[in-house]
Fold these 2 entries.
Entry 1:
Amino acid sequence: MKATAIAHPIQGLIKYHGLKDARLRIPFHDSISVCVGALQTTTTVETTESLKEDLVIINGKKAVGTDLERVEVVLNKLRRMTLDSGHFKVVSQNSITSGKGLGFSASGFAALGTAASTAVGSDVDYISLSELVRLGAGSATRSLAGSFAILYADKNGKSYAEQLVKPEAVNLGMVIIPIPSSIRTDEAHSEVLSSPLFKARLKYVAKIIKTMEEAIKTGDIATIGRLAEEDSLNLHASTMTGKAHMILWEPETVRIVREVQRMQREGIPVWYSIDTGPSVFVNTFTDYLETVADRLRESGFSDIMTSKVGGSPFLSGKHLF
């Protein structure tokens, strides 16, 4: 059987950094994100008896090494869950391939889990599916939930995500500026554990996670934007002070931050957010989206997109093969 799923990547608002259990991808603390409606991953999965092993193609290239291993962890777990012994052909394509830190690992594994479980004809319950996609990327749980979502590090002995509000409930607009990088997210997750600031970050996140959740439920965009901006600085401070002194920002990252700060001084409601990479999300009210986007274009950033909040993954009849 063949199935295709489409999922949206995420912007981390209260971001998770570091893994308490690297094998199961269980984070140290809860985290919150929002799905980016303008971006998506499309993944087609087919069960087949003609292959001697799984075939995985990501963005036009055959997956090997770590990329293949992460996919295999999910597929092998699904085989054990469903008692299926066949192989899979997987073709996955992101809507854009430039930029690092745009949350595509989240949408990639959310789409994979949705399509693969459908392809094997399995009625996997939501929490089990959330825990399945988490094995590929912790943030995939929040892409699977859709909209604004919280990932629980430990809720009654399970680590999974659930949606906080419907996509249309919060009038949040996002400007996305992709910036390329060769850094792998896994390297940063491992590196941050050596930072002397990491324990302080855990205490910080424990204090603000409920504030962010309440801001989302009440549609308080100013608080959402401010907290996401502050959390970005906190996260990158922890990364920079690890033993390898990893600096994930590029010069363009700083230029965008400076431009956002100029807009803030002019009274424009706008805030930056930077996940594990150099790319930048600029958050604002949807009514200000074009104003903010035009301002960034005038500053020399032509490769930008605007977006509203995206929903949860859905199945499509338009297969990639």
Entry 2:
Amino acid sequence: MTWELTLTGLLIGLLVGVTGMGGGSLMTPILILVFDFKAVTAVGTDILHGAIFKTIGAGQHRVLGHVHARLCFWLALGSVPSSIGGVVLVELLERRYGDDIHDIATTTLGIALVVVGLGFLAKTYIHRRPVDDRPYRLARRDRVLAVAIGAVGGFVLGLTSVGSGTFFGLAMIVLFPLTAAKIVGTDIFHAAILLWAAGIAHLASGNVDLAATGWLALGSIPGVLAGGHLTVRLPDRAIRTALAAVLFLAGLKLVGIF
């Protein structure tokens, strides 16, 4: 189970590189459905792995000036502590319910994937107002919204591993007048911060398979770099629609509908 994990990491990395965000939501259900990971271990491994390869993309976007640093700060102010809260809740549930927590986590993950799939589809077809690239100063309302969005999305991510791309990207499209490049850059930069916080918490809780994380990263790092070059050559809307369908169907599978 080494080259298979690396190949999976490569495919997920390519998908994230091409679509900009959201492809990582596929990793946890793949680890559960294909590699027979326990749900809690799959969540922790996915989060730490995502932190590693998204940091590469975050650095590139920062250098290119595609990151709204203040928005990242306010998002992280809500998301980092709430993601750790999600991990703590997983630990408490595991102590209370024992192995039954894996069934609970699988069902929770399935529901989250269904919601994320629908959200990703909505994000694909939302038409935004024209925006310019002038600096956008956050008002008090923007800061409050950012913290609230971060708190909700961070908690869901700590609990299930999904949402770091689709949820925050969709929220920024709807609420903040940023260019597409700054939405992608800000989203990935914030995701890297959030994933490191949640990933370290899962690592401390013993929910991470470090060997699997390494083999996945071996494929995903070159994959995400190569995927960025493929973006301009592939039909973005078709890719995002297919991804939304896969997330939705994977969620239904985990919930046990089919």
